[in-house]
Every structure is written in structure tokens, then in C-alpha cells.
Amino acid sequence: MEPIKSSELITNEDGSVFHLHLHPGDLADQIILVGDPSRVEMIASYFDHIEIKKSDREFHTTTGQYKGRRISVISTGIGPDNIDIVMNELDALVNIDLQTKEIKPEKKRLNIVRIGTSGSVQADVPVHSFVISEMSLGIDGVLRFYRDNETVCDTAFEDAFIKECHWTPLAARPYAVKASPELVSKLHTAGVTVKGVTLTANGFYGPQGRVLRLPIEMPTVNDEIARFHFNGHKIVNYEMESAAIAGLSALMGHHATTICLIIANRANGNASSNYKPYMKKLVEYTLDSLAR
Ligand SMILES: O=P(O)(O)O[C@H]1O[C@H](CO)[C@@H](O)[C@H]1O
Ligand SMILES: O=c1cc[nH]c(=O)[nH]1
Q1: 15-41 pLDDT tens trace
Q2: What residues does the Nucleoside phosphorylase domain cover (predicted)?
């Protein structure tokens, strides 16, 4: 097989991957992704030992040990477009020889958990709940650029969603991808976490049905989303990265899920006035669940 061209897999002068500025040895097999770069510092403050800290733009990485387990925490910034960058560079770090630019014959599987903030669409999932994504529904279109994307998607779920939520054909076809069942069961505790479907949007306002000054194309969509159910699945929350992580992980052979703190309830119209202490609790819960 031909090596990958330098224009397709750009590396920096020091041989690190273009955006993350990481070398293969900098990365642990257990990865935590977060949107907000300041959350990397907060999570790393729980580590027993810090090995590596690197940052460029919104991509901040700290690798260290938590209760004897090596973990890399990486910020992605906001949105599924950044997930395209982060997932491709993480996969390149473990599955492509960065010097020869040849794909390695033996593939490594990473464990990826996103810890994020999120908005609930269900009246009975209040602010400060913890929600695990068993499945994610991407309305952003990123996964659709990759060949065989439909092999990791639940087409029947997508068809039912498009019909019952009167989804506009002008937007990309939503893609439904399952999370890693192993990671979901590792992170779930009855009475502590809620499991459900997470909607991943490519915007915070219009794409999540928020109206400020501009009217939106599908004004009743959030009520329809809240009522929608298929094969025992209900949509619980909105955020902006989970489906792209789940979809690219499924295509690349990695394990992934997302766990979110609800900071706004779209059904009730309320929002947290200070979510940071609850984010600390979610981080402690997630780190301990992963260390078990
Ligand atoms: O708190 P983070 O991880 O950034 O996640 C959520 O918050 C951002 C929007 O405010 C989006 O990235 C969304 O997914
Ligand atoms: O409503 C919300 C809250 C956090 N992040 C989102 O993307 N949406």
C-alpha cells in the first residue's frame, strides 16, 4: 500500500500530528475528551502524577495517572468539525506510522469517553442530571463524508426520526450510532445516571431549536424530539460532539461513549446558574468508574 501523502497527514517539524501536537508515546489508551480547555486542567488536578502537558489552539492535552491508570485528557473545543480533526489525529497516532506514513498492520483500539455539558429535552431529566449516551444521533453530517458510514448506523431509527420529527430534507440526513456497550455499562449506575439517546448538533442556537432574533425552519421540532421513541430508545439531550465521536470510533474500531451534565432544561425553560461544582462531581464519578 502507498504511504499517505504529507498533504493528507500533516506533521509538525518535531514529527507530531498537526493540530494536537502529540507524539504516539504522549497518548494513553484511555482517553477523556472534553469541549472546554479549562476542563482539562480541572480533570488533571485529580491525577496522582502528570506526565505530559501540550497545547495548541483549543486542543489541550494532559496525560497522567489516576489511581494507577494512565489517562489522556484532551479538549476538542466546540463542535463536530473539531471532532473530525481530533478523531483522525488520535487514530493516526496509534494506527499510522508517523515517520513512514504507512498504516500499521495491527490496529490499536482506544477507549474514548467524552465528558460534556448538555441540554435536556425531557421535562423529567432536570438540570444537574448525569446522562450517558447509549446511542447518538448526529444532525451535523460529518460522518456522512466517510465511505460505509451506513454500516455503523441504525437506518430504521433514522427513518423513524425523520418521519416523526418532520425533519427538513434541506439538512443533512441524521445518523444514529450506538455507543460502546462496555463503556456504557462501566459508567452507568442506576439512580445516578440516566441512559438515552443524545442529539449532536452542529450549532448551539438554530440547530438546537433555540430562537433569539432569527426564526427557525422547524419551530416545533423540540416537542417532537421529546415525544419521539423507537425500539425502546428516547432522545434525552442535546450537545455538539457525541455522534461524531461515536460514528468515527465505530468506523475506526475504537470504543466510545459520552457522559454529560445537564446545564439547561429545554422543556422547562430553565438553566443552571452555576454548573461547575456539579461538573466536578461528574468528573469524580467518571474517573472512579473508569478506574474500577
Ligand atoms: O461542555 P462541552 O464539552 O464544551 O460541551 C457542550 O458545550 C458546548 C456548547 O456550549 C458544546 O461543545 C457542547 O457539546
Ligand atoms: O443546551 C445545551 C447546553 C450545553 N451544550 C449544548 O450543546 N446545548
Answers
A1: 999 999 999 999 999 999 999 999 999
A2: 31-271
Residue 202, domain member (yes or no):
yes
Cell of 241: 460532539
Total tally of structural domains belonging to the chain? 1
Spacing of C-alpha 63 from chain mean position = 19
Whichever domain contains 145, its CATH number is 3.40.50.1580
Check pocket membership of 118 for ligand 2, CB cut-off 6 A. yes
Structural domain span for residue 67: 24-291
Rounded CA-CA distance 214/247 in Å is 31
Q: In this structure, is residue 107 part of a structural domain?
A: yes
Model pLDDT for residues 100-138, shown as the tens digit of each residue? 999 999 999 999 999 999 999 999 999 999 999 999 999
Position in ligand 2 atom list of the atom nearest CA 266: 1
- Predicted structure pTM score: 0.98
Residue 258 Cβ contacting ligand 2 at under 6 Å: no
- Asked if 56 contacts 23 with a C-beta cutoff of 8 angstroms, the reply is no
**For a substitution probing ligand 2, which of 208, 261, 279 has the most ligand atoms within 8 Å of its CB?**
208
Q: Is 174 in the pocket of ligand 2 (CB under 6 A)?
A: no
